[in-house]
Amino acid sequence: MRQYLVCNIILLFISILPHNGYCVEQSPEQFVSEFYQWYFNADPGTTPAERNDAIYNYVAKQTVDDIRSIKIGNSDIYKDTYYFTKVGSYTADWKSVKTIIHPAMAIGNKLYVINVTFDTGLKKNDVIVSLTKENGKFYIKSVMDVFPDILE
User: Fold this and answer.
1) Using CA atoms in the order 94, 96, 97, 103, what is the torsion angle rounded to 10 degrees?
2) For the segment 30-85, what is each residue's pLDDT rounded down to a tens digit?
3) Domain 23-151 has CATH 3.30.110.30
């Protein structure tokens, strides 16, 4: 009887502890939001986040390797635009840009596409992020530019 009471007290105690959310499966939208929070904070403008190996936590290895190969020589200057935002320069203060993650669309059970809007207050820029799910974890496979007139 005493063991039964102790077990019930322990179960009650565990059930009232705050949960940290790790038991809940992460949604594609949450993953993309987490990525862009990391990306904008990891990239102060002098050393691109694409050079940070923590990017492999979010982006498929082949995609990172491809992005790194489009750089001009050993320079930190990209040929055209920054891959994950599709803008040509870092004139915006990215920490103040409002990142809007739109609902994901599933294609099968391992591929997702998500429209992401970056709103500076003066201008909006949209990208389409494609994700795959491998071994229960999301990875960004590609980011595509969206011309403004397509979504307006």
Assistant:
1) 110
2) 999 999 999 888 866 567 788 888 999 999 999 999 888 876 555 555 555 678 88
3) no
| Predicted TM-score of the model (pTM) | 0.74
**59 DSSP assignment:** B
Burial class for 90, CB neighbours closer than 10 Å (0-12, 13-18, 19+): middle
Is 87 exposed, middle or buried, given 0-12, 13-18 or 19+ CB atoms closer than 10 A? middle
Residue type, 116: V
Length of the chain: 152
In this prediction, residue 144 carries a pLDDT of 92
Query: Which amino acid would we find at residue 10?
Result: I
Query: Are 123 and 141 in contact, with CB atoms under 8 Å apart?
Result: no
